[in-house]
Design goal:
single chain; alpha/beta; Rossmann fold; eight-stranded mixed β-sheet; two-stranded antiparallel sheet
């Protein structure tokens, strides 16, 4: 294509896809589309009918800046300020992890278990380490009447979760609590479900994370310690104490620590280990346990 050819949407996407691929992006076409749609202030789907359109210079300048920062490793979600999760749009900042598709397996399991309860009372749910609030907000939105407590140690992350609860109209259904796991809660309440996507990256694994994760996402929300199970080791007995009889514990994990997490659960006499939920790659992703009946 000659240099004088116009920079149409189609040409911008083609060039940017190749450029981001050369800089290590694992989804260069998607990255290019999301960033260009954001620079243009349009839905991404609108790009597909406008390939021959040449955007104005101000939009192209904004797009160039976004592409430069993406090539430096900044996650797309931080650049545009949001991420889609479970068909909902969530505000995302560098204070919280970028929501990932793997966590949807936990949300699906939580909703399915809650909907099949025989108890007519609304479920009581704790989301431990809520981050951006995706688990708590989905629970409150899709389980009307549920009492949801979202716990987070980071005050900055809690502010993001609060904004997301408001954006999805569930502020009244989600109680936000600043605290370290379940330690800061009063002796009551107890819960029918405790769900968590805790830090589970081992120290030796951290340096092998992709650059955008390692350099830009909050380290404290990723790194658990030398083994990768340190936070889970603390959470499991706390959850066993807080669950009602027959209540459920759902933990998102790394496949590399699956066996170790199962042993932690088995060592807790008040819990019964259930079947692990696998992700689309058939890797163990969510450990499920149930509180023995009182």
């Amino acid at each position: 294509m000659p240099d004088s050819a116009p920079w149409t949407i189609g040409r911008l996407l083609q060039w940017t896809t190749e450029y981001l691929q050369s800089r290590g992006s694992d989804s260069p076409r998607l990255d290019a589309e999301v960033l260009l749609a954001h620079a243009l202030g349009r839905p991404r789907i609108a790009l597909y009918t406008a390939f021959d359109e040449a955007p104005p210079e101000d939009a192209r300048a904004a797009f160039r800046n976004l592409v430069r920062r993406r090539a430096e490793g900044v996650p797309v979600a931080y650049l545009v300020g949001y991420r889609e999760f479970y068909s909902l749009r969530f505000q995302v900042t560098p204070d919280v992890l970028v929501p990932r598709p793997e966590t949807e397996h936990l949300v699906v399991a939580l909703l399915d278990l809650a909907r099949t309860r025989t108890d007519p009372a609304p479920p009581a749910i704790a989301d431990v380490g809520t981050g951006s609030g995706i688990i708590a907000v989905c629970a409150a939105k899709y389980l009307p009447g549920a009492r949801v407590v979202a716990i987070e140690l980071s005050r900055a992350a809690l502010a993001v979760a609060r904004a997301n609860a408001a954006a999805h109209g569930v502020s009244d259904g989600v109680e936000l609590v600043e605290g370290d796991l379940l330690e800061g809660l009063a002796p009551e309440p107890r819960f029918d479900f405790i769900a968590s996507n805790p830090p589970y990256v081992a120290a030796a694994e951290f340096d092998r994370l992709t650059r955008d994760v390692r350099e830009h996402e909050p380290r404290d929300a990723l790194l658990a310690g030398a083994r990768g199970t340190e936070v889970i080791e603390r959470l499991v007995p706390q959850a066993a104490e807080r669950l009602n009889g027959g209540g459920h514990l759902l933990l998102e994990i790394s496949p590399m620590i699956h066996d170790a997490v199962c042993e932690i659960v088995r060592a807790e006499a008040r819990l019964r280990l259930g079947e692990t939920i696998k992700d689309l790659a058939r890797l163990p992703r969510v450990v499920h346990a149930r509180r023995a009946g009182d």
